[in-house]
Amino acid sequence: MTSQEIRQKFLDYFKSKDHLIVPSAPIVLKDDPTLMFSNSGMTQFKDFFLGYKTPTAPRIADTQKCLRVSGKHNDLDDVGRDTYHHTMFEMLGNWSFGDYFKKDAIAFAWELLTEVFGIPKENLYVTIFEGDASENLERDQDAYNFWKSHISEDRIINGNKKDNFWEMGESGPCGPCSEIHVDLRTEEEKAKVSGLDLVNNDHPQVVEVWNLVFMEFNRKADKSLEKLPQQHVDTGMGFERLCMALQGKSSNYDTDVFTPLIAKVEELSGKKYTGILEDEKDIAIRVVVDHIRAVAFAIADGQLPSNGGAGYVIRRILRRGISYSYRFLGMKEPFLYKLVAVLQEQMGTFFPEIEKQGKLVSEVIKSEEDSFLKTIENGLIRVEKLIQQTIADNSKVLPSEEVFELYDTYGFPDDLTRIIAEEKGLTIDEAGFKVEMEKQKLRSKADSAQKVYDWVTLETKPENFVGYDQIESETYITRYRKVENKDGEFYQVVLSSSPFYPEGGGQVGDKGVLENAVESFEVLETKKENGLIISLINGLPKDAGAVFYAKVDATDRRNSQANHSVTHLLHEALREVLGTHVEQKGSYVGPDYLRFDFSHFNKMTEEELTLVEEKVNAKIKESIALQEFRSIPIQEALDKGAMALFGEKYGDSVRMIQFGSSKELCGGTHVKNTIEIGHFKITSESSAAAGIRRIEAISGDKSEEYFKNLENQIHELSQLLKSKDVVRSTEKLIEENISLKSEVEALKKEKAKGEIGEWKNAYEQKGNKQLLVKKTSLDAGSVKDIVFQLKREIPTSVTIILSDADGKPMITVGVSDDLAADYQAGAIVKDLAKEIQGGGGGNPGFATAGGKNLDGLENAYQKALNI
């Protein structure tokens, strides 16, 4: 049975059991502050479990793309070293929202596994929650009783809280669970050791294949448990492990989920995959085929590699794959991007995003490969210098600070530094490196540390967003909770009637005030979490149950919504000018400016930018009225021509924003008429990533300010130049400047010639060598030219020049070639630079260093005389 057939059989089975089949949610979570990625099948249904939203159906089934590379659920370091851990994996799941519970969930799972998929019953074991006295939780006797009707009691195993009480995170929905394990060993192995002894003991052939979670509780911030309003079922079956079981394999990587990718890697690298766990080559191949899936789908869902947040995680995964292929497969050129075509063929039917976004995904990955391979090459040079310096210092251990700097600042893999060091008979300071890593983690943790307390509920009133229609409203606080972070103590509040737009869809959250006759609080930000609109305020009201007035900052809202509306007009104009391949790939919409990322593979020309600007401003001047379809079936909106963005999760009903021919699905706030935008001005166009261009622009008040500033600047220039023809006067100044520069350079060369003759006669004989230590005010370029000439013309010489040009200390060292084996210019300059509080480097024959302490030149001079 192929993996495609297995996936389809699962969905067909649950469709026959009256489950609605829904598509996978994006792997990247854009509007959930608690998670970067979908790390389980239940992520997209959190709001249903918590009662914040009504499910589209009481029974749902799907296959969900998941990513486990950060936080509590992190499998990254295990990937490649065993047969079953992955970064990205598919979670097959069936869900019941207040409908069926343990009995039916267990019956469905048993029937599907044993009768539909035909797994021998004697190969299966199940676990149930044994209870936990510290939480006052009893043994899950119901699950035990239901399992008894399907499987012999000696195959039902008690499991502890760690294995059999599932929790989403530090807080949130949770409950006891039953795991189903399959024993894939040979009959001979089974005869020697019972599978009972191997369940939950990390045996590679006795693995958990399905987890049935019975959602009964909500874990609060104070760690207490409260009953959920309804009982739910949340199941998750590892698709890759199921394929391993059904295809009779002993490794996930031997199934057809991975074999086409492995075959392509073999073809491109010339290396043969043997499946040996300890073989570094095979580990590298497993890492590559796993990581390419995670990276490709994250990019297809809209997350580009970057230096922060979710983008950094994706970049780290990709770089890990590149590093392994470089070191163990000998791949010194980009090649991972060529695997995307295999993914498209394998998974495009079930996940159309990889088919549609394939070209972009390939381009982004190739660009990242090019960049990181250059990083490795540059890092190799740095490592070589570090090794030479360590040897020069008569040490066998590379210092931890420098190794960590290579890793943290330059992105050079620390394990590659180890390998190179070992080849030279050296080691790295492992203890020191761990200390540096721990310091970084603590810094990162301190920056993001936040303690969130439990909600205090005040009102049972409905919680509504009224911000599309008004920016002020009378309201009540329905619930609040305290938040502590590095900036102090704050309170998050949920309002019965909130005009504050929560950050989302690229648009910043509203700020403003929450006040009444007695007290007033600043609203610092507004976000959305689990369906709740949460505003952060700078204190707790004395009477939290009083009537308040919520007021949005009108100026910021006006400018933000102008910028948001103009992104829709910009999107349409870009598609008209550049082609329909243009799709939005990210945006930022704030009161000061807008940023718009879009798919396009070439830098825009000035003519294209001008045309786009003209088209947008023409639409603004047309005074096009907003047409808002606040709740429209998604298919109807798409039939009307609305743009839907890949990587976004849409419900059955959506909001469509229309300005003439521009139609987009959007939840943001907008102007009522395009004339309110005022004027649109592009301020920059640049590359955001391979195949992604970025436009930054302004409109409204900021556009007016822009042109006023230009007018003022031109007026000031006119007065300075004493001419109304600013352009011609500036051209004349440039011509005069070029001429003067030529004269200055000529004078410098003449001065340098005079210095050379004097310096040649100033060398001191030191035994059979010659030393020149000289102070000067010549600029760095002139000093460099002179030193190179002297080290060529004066044999067995060391030349040290200390310059104070422009009030900045500079030390330059030259060593003639015949002394290069005995004296290192880099080592000399590094030692002298300590006196000027600086640093620098170079090669054995030439090195420079700059510093902060000009007065230290005298100490450096005296020190140099004693070399």
From TrEMBL:
Coiled-coil ranges from the UniProt annotation: none
Known catalytic reactions: tRNA(Ala) + L-alanine + ATP = L-alanyl-tRNA(Ala) + AMP + diphosphate
Cofactor list: Zn(2+)
Chief site of localization: cytoplasm
One GO term (biological process): alanyl-tRNA aminoacylation
Alphabetized GO MF terms: alanine-tRNA ligase activity; aminoacyl-tRNA deacylase activity; ATP binding; tRNA binding; zinc ion binding
InterPro entries given in the database record: aa-tRNA-synth_II/BPL/LPL, Ala-tRNA-lgiase_IIc, Ala-tRNA-ligase_IIc_anticod-bd, Ala-tRNA-synth_IIc_core, Ala-tRNA-synth_IIc_N, Ala-tRNA_ligase, Ala_tRNA_ligase_euk/bac, DHHA1_dom
Cell location: Cytoplasm
Domain of life the protein comes from: Bacteria
Binding site for Zn(2+): 564, 568, 666, 670
Ranges for domain Alanyl-transfer RNA synthetases family profile: 1-709
Cofactor details (free text): Binds 1 zinc ion per subunit.
Role noted for this protein: Catalyzes the attachment of alanine to tRNA(Ala) in a two-step reaction: alanine is first activated by ATP to form Ala-AMP and then transferred to the acceptor end of tRNA(Ala). Also edits incorrectly charged Ser-tRNA(Ala) and Gly-tRNA(Ala) via its editing domain.
Family to which the UniProt record says this protein belongs: Belongs to the class-II aminoacyl-tRNA synthetase family.
Domain description: Consists of three domains; the N-terminal catalytic domain, the editing domain and the C-terminal C-Ala domain. The editing domain removes incorrectly charged amino acids, while the C-Ala domain, along with tRNA(Ala), serves as a bridge to cooperatively bring together the editing and aminoacylation centers thus stimulating deacylation of misacylated tRNAs.
Protein name according to UniProt: Alanine--tRNA ligase
Organism, scientific name: Chryseobacterium elymi
The gene coding this protein: alaS
